[in-house]
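Entry:
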Amino acid sequence: MERQQWKKIWVGSAGNMVEWFDWFVYASFSTYFAASFFPSGNPTAQLMNTAGIFAVGFFMRPVGGWLLGRVGDRKGRKAALTLTVSLMSASAVLIAIAPTYGVAGYGGAAVLLIARLLQGLSVGGEYAASATYLTEASDPSRRGFASSFQYVSMTAGQILGLGLQILLQRTMSDDALHSWGWRIPFIIGALGAAVIFYLRRNMLETEVYEESADDTAADDKGTIKTLLQHKREAFLVIALTMGGTVAYYTYTTYLTKYLSNSAGLPKQTATLVSFCALIVFACLQPLAGMLSDRIGRRPLLITFAVGSTFLTVPIMTLLQHAGSFWPALGLSLLALVVVTGYTSINACVKAELFPTGIRALGVALPYAIANALFGGTAEYVALWFKDGGIESGFYWYVAGCAAVSLIVYLTMRETKDLDLNKVGKKAGKEQASASSQEISRVG
């Protein structure tokens, strides 16, 4: 890769890392601040309240996907990426200063909710803007490798969050963490977002976007009307995301809680398991991305779906009885190796489906809808099954979602060799032709 391409990938990935650090520390530190915002009582009930607010953030992601996807297609990928990190910084500040239940009653939970809504807006646009930027900025023969850094950076954000949690667990008392120590990661996240805002203001726009400036009429870029001309592709994004996002959030965001709340491991051990597993997981992403550049995207997606469909129930069952660090780590790694078939390439697959003038919105809105329905609710669904005494039902739910996506992977086209410039120009010509025919009929 050329130096400029590496620079684009680095800036896009670094921003994505901070975005997802802020997004994930809410989940990883919720065991410490759940009691600060809700009345004392059943710990599982308190976690369900914080998980519910976590899920609400996901339901803002379609709004963020629409708003920021529109910005990305009309004003450029750089403009959208700069706006997303600004929203994330504001939300981190709100969580860091939110008053507790003892100070403001449910007012603190209201501040927490507002912050999560802002985070939902931000991440709803961040995924698509980042996926589009990384895909367009790379060499056509290495799009799988380049776009894999989206999940490298997402996972790096979570690794940093878990690493900070381990550090605080070892240097602060449990009482201090529950009292005020949980605010520290949100302060760090806000500062990190400010740094990334500066970097993104000086980032370079992708050549694919600049070269396509005349391919789509300005009024048609980033609009729902134009997106509806690609209904099949939009449905594909929702369907192929369904299984992957549930599996991803199960084995990353929810894993630490599951190991401590269900498997009975100490919080420190559960955090360390997740931390070590995610380091390996991040290293696997570029390797799988490179493999997809050679053999195609579909083989990796199909491998993920088959593995997740048939291995989820035994892996989750064994994890519940792991008992110690090494068995839990081994099972977690097995699950994340399977998930890599989806995470490493899903960003470029979605971006490769759409023309340039609608690519950001085409990825953002359907993906955000799928995450709101399946990814954001995964943790809440898991806790709901647990609270109802049928926790194993969640395992079958995850496997079932993967099975649905498997059907899509088996029937979709291969996208590895598509020319992003020609996809956009072809769509533009078809639209122009349709407009000409309409004028002729009117005449």
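The chain is about 80% helix and 0% strand.
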